[in-house]
Every structure is written in structure tokens, then in C-alpha cells.
Amino acid sequence: MQIIRTVSDLVTLVSRSLDNGKSIGLVPTMGALHEGHLSLVDRAVKENDVTIVSVFVNPTQFNNPTDLATYPRKEEDDFRLLAAAGASAVFAPSVEEMYPEGTASDHVFDLGTAAEVMEGKFRPGHFQGVAQVVSRLFRLCRPTRAYFGEKDFQQIAVIRNMVASEKIDVQIVAVPIRRADDGLALSSRNALLTPEQRKVAPEIHAALAYSVDYAREHSVRATHDTVVERINAIPHMEVEYFEIVDGRTLLPVEEWSESPDIVGCITVYCGKVRLIDNIRYRPHLTKKC
Ligand code: PAF
Predict the structure, then answer these.
(1) How buried is residue 137: exposed, middle or buried, by Cβ count under 10 Å (0-12/13-18/19+)?
(2) Is the CB of 58 under 6 A from ligand 1?
(3) For residue range 131-153, what is the model confidence (pLDDT) as tens digits?
(4) Is the domain defined by 2-175 classed in CATH 3.40.50.620?
(5) Quick one: CA torsion of 156, 162, 163, 167, rounded to 10 degrees?
(6) Per-residue pLDDT reduced to its tens digit, 167-205
(7) 2-175 and 188-281 agree in CATH topology
(8) Domain 188-281, architecture per CATH
(9) Is 218 annotated as catalytic?
């Protein structure tokens, strides 16, 4: 596996690959890799001739300096895991290499209304930062396909909008959430949980999974409230938002009959660690109330 630190070495690899008619799969990450990331790499390796994984903690998508400072970094472990997973190259640039003209940008991406709700409300500027780095990676790597985890359900919708508005020719592949045996969605942030917090964190998925059954006999509002009440009753846990939305527009729904595609998206503070997860109510919901 090639370890690439500079844009010029990356462009050389990409040009050589495309000149030889090879397809490129890109897996953008912020490192501290876990099985969830590796499932994206695995899929990219299977579907493309060349797989490039970027490892870059992107400062422009953090609206909280402490969050950026404490974000886990494990570069050596990451490189070892990626080599074992069969990645062709890892692109791990410095901030200066990624943003030679500085991190500030005048360009405002058109990300649609999907970027204004949920994370957009609670993390102002976050998705502009994501679009800034992902569009730059797309322009440098010119991937045939790019892989993103469904844990970040809203991020995928926003990236699809960015690709459309910026007219970038790439197929966005959404890969299902990977969970620990106790149900906790795998996330780099899980490493920041204390043992006590780690013990209760699976309650997020437990509450969501329970609510899928509950929803068969209850309204959207009651389903929403039961999830929030159950999680907030647990020590160390506080729901920041839980929204039951149309999976296509990400706008809130009031009735189960409003859309064939309904997803519950949640963010919970477990102590100081911000965890996100989601669950699909429809099409899985078979009986409507
Ligand atoms: O999902 C992430 O880890 C990041 O938002 C991404 C897509 C790598 C951009 O920095």
C-alpha cells in the first residue's frame, strides 16, 4: 500500500490509474478506523481496480474547537489496517497540503434543504466544511465511486446534493451501519467513552429498535416521545435531537402514511461524547396506524 502525503503524488497515482483504464474507488475518512470504515474499504476493493482511502481530520467541518482537538488520531494503526484490508493507497495530507490557500473559503456550496435540518441546525457550517473537503477529494482523486457509511445518513444526502450542484461525475455508494455485538453503532468517537458510558451507549440503538415495533401501533409523535424519554432517563445520556423524517427530503413527517421511506435520526450526548445513529421505520413498517 502506498502512503501518500502530497497532492502531487496523489495526482500522479490518479493520472496513471486513469490512463491505464482503471476504475478508482475513494473512501474518505477522518481516521481512527474501525470495522465500519473497513466495510467501506472492503466494498471499494471489491468494486474497483484501485482503492484510495483518505485519512484527514478536516478542521473546516468542526464548529467546536474542543471537538476538533479531542478527535481521536491513530495514524499508525490506521495504515496497518488499511494495508491488511487491501487498499491500494492512503492519502494522509497535512492541513497545509490540503488547504494551501488556507481553510477559509468564499465558495458557498448549494447543499439543498437537506443541509439545513438536524446536524445543519445544531452544527452551523458543518456541512459546508464537509462539502469543501469532499469536493476537493473528488477533484483530486476523480473516483468512479465514493463510499460513505449510513450512520451519517444526513451526510450522504448532503453529499449527493453537492455532487449534483457541483456537477461532479461520481457514483455515491451508501454502505449499511456496522454495529458492535451489543448494538452500538461503530464510530471513531466510541473510543472517547468512559467504561461507564460505553456500558449505557447501546441503549441508543435499543431504544430505536424498540420504537420500530412501537410505531406499528402508535403515532409519529408518540414514537418520537417514547425514544426521547427512554434515552433521557438513562444516566449520562441526553438526546440533542431526534427527528422522524422523510428519508428522501429529510423533512419531518407527521404521519406514517406521508412517505414510503421514513427514517428516525438521533444525536445523543453520552457524557461529552456526541453519538449519532438512525433507524428505518419504512419500508420496514408493515402495519400502519
Ligand atoms: O464522515 C466523515 O468521516 C467525514 O465527514 C468525511 C466524509 C471523511 C469528510 O471529512
Answers:
(1) buried
(2) yes
(3) 999 999 999 999 999 999 999 99
(4) yes
(5) 170
(6) 999 999 999 999 999 999 999 999 999 999 999 999 999
(7) no
(8) 2-Layer Sandwich (3.30)
(9) no
